[in-house]
Design a protein that fits this description.
Distance between the termini: 22 Å
Order of helices and strands: EEEHEEEEEHHEHEHEHEHHHEHEHE
Shape: globular
Helix content: 25-40%
Largest sheet: 7 strands, mixed
Radius of gyration: 19 Å
Number of strands: 15
Number of helices: 11
Strand content: 15-25%
Length: 322
């Protein structure tokens, strides 16, 4: 099958390749990929930023989001049948959405939201899970609390705004002038145009990010000791991660908040809950553009070069989506 693989770590380390179709384990669901999407995490893994903790062995297939159709199930699989439309964020060390087929552990898979196309669903898993794990699992956001979302027009930011509003929070976000209408339509109560204002001078008293005693969560790093613990790494790696995050933790402490790094985890059960929110209209995907599968590396470059105007970039197996 055709796939886009990391042949060596680094900016120029990814290429198109012919690779064997995946082996299907007892608990695996084999999915014919209809679409995937680009995440900053793809670049970070390609560049080897987590190679001491996530020990991928090149060549390996890249891609952290998948939507497609089940073509085979392992003997221990329950709840999925051949022909089901599904979506997933495959677990670490088993990624591979930039390929024609992928085998995914059944615990990481969920039925595709009925209201979304496969291309729309491919834009959802990683950012939706990250938003859920930030707002619900880590921060336990409650009605009436105040949440600040940076880069509200981005793939993650646009999802966090919507989920925070669903949870009953008052939401402020940073965006540029061009994106103000979009983020307000997603539910932002306060929009700070970062091209004109400094958010730290106009916002205060936020439970998540700004409020003294509050919590600042980052999904782009630097990683902290908790990340090493999450991955079950040796204790010395926790010390390394703590050292890497020392500067940002010091800055957070000076502002009276706690810093945490979030590396989201695959979770099919959470995707089922999120799917219900998409089907009820509480959440909607925001898509910047769609590239055909054979232009996956161009799609990655589009994101890396900052050419995305809002939301996610999708890679589709269906011809004519560029």
């Amino acid at each position: 099958m055709k796939a886009f693989v990391v042949e060596k770590y680094g900016k120029d380390g990814a290429r198109a390749a012919e690779v064997p179709e995946p082996t299907v384990g007892d608990r695996d669901v084999l999915v014919r990929v209809s679409a995937s999407s680009i995440n900053p995490l793809d670049k970070m893994v390609r560049n080897g930023e987590f190679k001491q903790l996530l020990k991928y062995k090149p060549p390996f297939t890249l891609g952290h989001d998948v939507a497609g159709v089940v073509t085979q199930v392992g003997p221990a699989v329950h709840g999925f049948e051949v022909g089901d439309e599904v979506y997933a964020r495959p677990r670490d060390l088993r990624i591979g959405g930039f390929a024609e087929f992928i085998a995914i552990d059944m615990d990481d898979v969920a039925p595709k939201p009925a209201s979304l196309t496969l291309q729309e669903a491919a834009a959802v898993p990683l950012v939706a899970l990250a938003a859920w794990q930030v707002l619900v699992d880590r921060a336990d956001v409650q009605p009436g609390q105040k949440v600040l979302v940076h880069a509200g027009a981005g793939g993650l930011g646009s999802t966090v705004i919507q989920l925070a509003k669903h949870l009953g929070a008052t939401v402020a976000t940073t965006a540029n002038t061009r994106s103000e209408k979009l983020v307000r339509s997603l539910g932002a109560d306060v929009v700070v145009d970062y091209t004109k204002e400094d958010f730290s001078k106009v916002l205060s008293g936020y439970d998540l990010v700004l409020k003294p005693g509050g919590l600042a969560i980052s999904v782009v790093g630097p990683p902290d000791a908790g990340f090493a613990k999450q991955l079950g790494a040796p204790s010395f790696m926790a010390a390394v991660m703590s050292f890497l995050s020392r500067k940002v933790r010091k800055q957070a402490k000076a502002l009276g908040v706690r810093y945490q790094f979030l590396f989201m985890e695959a979770n099919g059960s959470q995707l089922r809950e999120l799917g219900a929110l998409y089907d009820s209209g509480k959440l909607r995907p925001v898509i910047d553009s769609t590239f055909p599968f054979d232009r996956t590396l161009e799609a990655m470059a589009h994101v890396e070069q900052g050419r995305t105007k809002a939301g996610k970039v999708v890679v589709s197996m269906v011809p004519g989506n560029d």
